[in-house]
Design a protein that fits this description.
Layout (H helix, E strand, L loop, with lengths): L1 E3 L2 E5 L16 E5 L2 E3 L6 H8 L27 H15 L8 H9 L64
Antiparallel strand pairs: 1-4, 2-3
Length: 174
Amino acid sequence: MVFVPNGTFQMGSPNTEQGRGNDEGPQRRVTVASFCMGKYAVTQAQWEAVAALPQINLSLNPNPSGFKGANRPVENVSWNSAMEFCARLAKKTGRAYRLPSEAEWEYACRAGNTTPFYFGETITTDLVNYNGNSTYGNAPKGIYRKQTTDVGSFLPNPFGLYDMHGNVWEVRFV
């Protein structure tokens, strides 16, 4: 786990940001209390271990991912399944686990930056795993790996969190 310090940031994106979705505004100032977040996305090995624990509310598919690998991120997981994962882990360890809120996730992802990505204005396949056939801004086309990569394959953001852009979609509490 990584400690994410409290802070205030501009949540959402400006109207002028390239590729901005309708659900990314209006921008607003948000204050977030400190919290802890997993350093990496949950791996398939971690998911399988927790899925083997006693059921609390619903059953979990122990291996839902299409791209197999113990150190790859788990994928094809619903919000309800993610909540069950947190509940089982909490019961096993005696500690509280939960999904981050939308504000917490965005704050942790930005890590003090105001650009579209924590590393700047554009994205490349040297920095994250995504379909490199699609470009963003002035970025060149890149590699299309056609699969997930092991967690931590790319550099972390300034908070020490890995893979906050690319690889898989994240589930958060809303």
